[in-house]
Write a sequence for this structure.
């Protein structure tokens, strides 16, 4: 997922406004954020991420950091579910709440894929209630994480003297900690 907007905002796409790369407000060590500017006339203004693969029955945590220079009373993260052909199935709506002015605030929506035939999902960063075009919303560190079970705490790579498919690969000559 393009969480840091380093190469622009694509493949995120807006509805009811514009969504562009910005360095006016950034979070943490990230050099950019996505800036959602409402049209001022749409009942919802939102930026929608690319599709990510999801497994049936797994629980996912959708997280993003929001910043509003003026504050706003109706922001949320929702999740759209899609089938194998990338056709929209349904939405899990996150709780709408307010965001204070000039303060980076973390938002999360937890959703379980119990949607029949859903194999993809996307994150939707929303301003509702016909936001005025002055209700700027910066989005940063937008991520999705599978929270269904134990997480891998490290990853190892085995070192060999030769490269595949050389049969002299066995036994390994060492182990490298990758993460």
């Amino acid at each position: 997922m393009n969480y840091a907007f380093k190469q622009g905002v694509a493949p995120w796409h807006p509805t009811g406004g514009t969504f562009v790369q910005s360095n006016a407000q950034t979070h943490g060590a990230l050099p950019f954020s996505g800036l959602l500017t409402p049209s001022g006339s749409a009942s919802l203004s939102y930026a929608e991420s690319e599709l990510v693969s999801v497994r049936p029955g797994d629980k996912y945590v959708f997280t993003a950091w929001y910043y509003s220079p003026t504050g706003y009373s109706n922001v949320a993260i929702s999740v759209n579910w899609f089938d194998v052909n990338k056709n929209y199935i349904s939405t899990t709506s996150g709780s709408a709440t307010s965001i204070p002015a000039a303060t980076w605030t973390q938002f999360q929506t937890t959703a379980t894929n119990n949607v029949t035939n859903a194999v993809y999902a996307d994150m939707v960063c929303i301003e509702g209630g016909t936001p005025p075009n002055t209700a700027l919303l910066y989005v940063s560190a937008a991520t999705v994480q599978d929270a269904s079970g134990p997480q891998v705490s490290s990853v190892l790579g085995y070192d060999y003297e030769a490269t595949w498919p050389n049969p002299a690969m066995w036994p390994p000559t060492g182990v490298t900690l990758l993460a």
Notes: The mean pLDDT is 90. Residues 121 and 161 are 42 Å apart (CA to CA).
